Amino acid sequence: MSVIDLEKHPVAHGRSKHIETKFHFLRDHVYNGKLEVKYCKSDEQIAELLTKPLKSSNFEYLKMKLGMAEASN
């Protein structure tokens, strides 16, 4: 949510000077209407599958969203 706020109000954030060039590239694309930033609940972020321990139901849901399947012999 803080990234969305930063994207909408870049002048109000003096502590954002350290942000890399790729952020400014993305912000320009948002400004020009080529990219849209949306909020995504943490239990729906596919990267959670690779970075955090999850309940088995969440793990299976994200595995399906990623397109992973059981390996067969």
What does this structure look like?
With 73 residues, the chain is mostly helical. The protein folds into two domains: 30 residues, no CATH class; 32 residues, no CATH class. It is built from four helices and no strands. The protein is elongated and about 55 Å long. The model has no long low-confidence stretch (mean pLDDT 78).
List key phrases describing it.
73 residues; 2 domains; 45% helix
The total of helices stands at 4
Mean pLDDT: 78
Radius of gyration: 17 Å
**Tally of distinct domains:** 2
Order of helices and strands: HHHH
The N- to C-terminal Cα distance equals 44 Å
Shape: elongated
Question: How many strands, what sense, and barrel or not for the largest sheet?
Answer: none
The residue fraction in helices comes out at 40-55%
Multimeric organization: single chain
Low-confidence stretches: none
Q: What's the number of extended β-strand segments?
A: 0
Structural class assignment:
mainly alpha
User: Proportion of β residues?
Assistant: under 5%
Write the layout of secondary structure elements.
Blueprint: H1 2-8, H2 21-31, H3 48-51, H4 56-66
Short note summarizing the structure:
This protein has helices spanning about 1-10, 20-30, 50, 55-65.
